[in-house]
Amino acid sequence: MTKKKINVGVVGYGFMGRTHSNAFGKVNQFFKLEHQPVLKAVCGRNAENVAAFAENWGYESSETDWRALVTRADIDLIDIATPNDSHAEIAIAAAAAGKMVMCEKPLAMNPSQAEEMVAAVEKAGVANMVWYNYRRVPAVTLAKQLIDEGKLGRIFHYRAKFLQDWTISKDIPQGGAGLWRLDVNAAGSGVTGDLLAHCIDTALWLNGGISQVTAMTETFIKERTHALTGKVEKVGIDDASAFLARFSNGSLATFEATRYARGHKALYTFEINGEHASIFWDLHDLHRLQYFAHSDEGRLRGWRSLHITDGDHPYMKNWWVPGLQIGYEHTFIHQVADFLGGLSDGKPAGPTFRDGLATDYVTDAVLRSAASGRWENVS
Ligand SMILES: NC(=O)c1ccc[n+]([C@@H]2O[C@H](COP(=O)([O-])OP(=O)(O)OC[C@H]3O[C@@H](n4cnc5c(N)ncnc54)[C@H](O)[C@@H]3O)[C@@H](O)[C@H]2O)c1
Question: Cβ neighbours of residue 218 under 8 Å, at least 6 residues apart?
Answer without folding.
Answer: 238, 239, 240
